[in-house]
Amino acid sequence: MQITVTVNGDEYTADVEPRLLLVHFLRDKLGLTGTHWGCDTSNCGVCVVWLDGTPVKSCTVLAVMADGHAVRTVEGLADGATLDPVQEGFVQCHGLQCGFCTPGMMMTARWLLDHNPDPSEDEIREAISGQSCRCTGYENIVRSVRWAAQQGQGVRP
């Protein structure tokens, strides 16, 4: 099937098999490897992207379901060479750790801050509860999101 998807503001048209998952379309067809692939069962959350502004686990979305829609990946967070406050927070507060869960965490955190620019620690933990980090107890990730919120730059256009 032929699909046309807008990814990070750029339109792409490609022929895909109907069973191709969005995560594989992004990584294998478009070369956007920032979106990680972990479990294929929607448990780990490392594959979170936005579909029409809503976070989805791209391992459970078929690429054909994104036809005619907008997808935003972790590669679309930065504004050129300027990191998004969430990205900067992960650097400043050591939220990156091994990095495997980082793209999904960042996409979820950005969505949270766009909807709640000053979340509590409990609200941050609730927002990221659908994602697994095998490195820590999430302390540095929560600190990273709080850092971004405290910069007064929680909401991005």
UniProtKB/TrEMBL annotation:
GO molecular function, one term: oxidoreductase activity
Protein's recorded name: (2Fe-2S)-binding protein
Pfam families: Fer2, Fer2_2
Record key words, sorted: 2Fe-2S, Iron, Iron-sulfur, Metal-binding, Oxidoreductase
Domain 2Fe-2S ferredoxin-type: 1-77
Involved pathway(s): Alkaloid degradation; nicotine degradation
Domain of life: Bacteria
